[in-house]
Write a structure and sequence with these properties.
The chain has helices at about 10-20, 35-45, 55-60, 70-80, 95-105, 135-140, 160-190, 190-200, 200-215, 220-235, 240-250, 265-270; strands at about 5, 25-30, 50, 60-65, 85-90, 110-115, 130-135, 150-155. The chain is an alpha/beta fold. Helix 7 (about 160-190) crosses helix 9 and helix 10 (about 220-235) packs antiparallel against helix 11 (about 240-250).
Amino acid sequence: MTIIGLISPGQMGASIGAAASNSGSSVIWAGDGRSKATHTRALDAGLENCGSITRLVNDSDIVLSVCPPHAAENVARKVKQLAFSGLFVDCNAIAPQKSRLIAEQFGYQHYVDGGIVGGPAWKSKSDTRLYLSGDRSNEIAALFDNSPLHTAVIDGEIGAASAMKIVFAAYTKGTTALLTAILGVAEREGVRNVLESQWGPAFTKQAHQRVTDNSAKAWRFEGEMLEIAATFENAGLPGGFHVAAAEVFEQLAQFKNEPAANIVELLKALDQPGH
């Protein structure tokens, strides 16, 4: 039986771990020092708590890293320092050049580049997709056969899956930040009602829902925007827009545990001293 070590069972990671267990693999995670909420989430997903990260690395054939972008390099470094000799799969929203650097640490035959598009993969109709690149991508795709998580292997060098994630999120999450900033300026200048009248009720409702729903994930989107900016700059294009988007999401970090109740509460967070 293949043993998969999952780092870590957040909202997305727990669903990925549950999907991987559909193949008959055993999915373990390291619960030492983690919160009660994380333990509950992992238990509900059917994951086995192995205790320590050291035990996870020693016991796993494959390690799946599903964590916030800012933690991706540290996770990879820790796993490598523990002399992991299996297959490491980075599923995080990181710049393709960063993914290639991590691949060099493990060796290209011990690394698969991944990028997740969509929300948690509890149901097939959610259409969550894990893009994969690297020579051993098909091995990872096979783990999710007949699971709610869809996979797509991209031909080309390691970094292609991360690039796909980056360019997709550059638009979807980048425009969410732009909408948030636009509403903030309109509120500050006293013309939000005029703007929303021009937009019309349908688009206004859509915009409000979009920015408030995403406020609970803004703390994670901040790091993702910086990865996008770095990717743009590495391609010879300006990254400043997404640096600014990161600043917008940073201002919404207070909603980490609970999204803003409404647009008024969200815009107040943008209107704090120092912003």
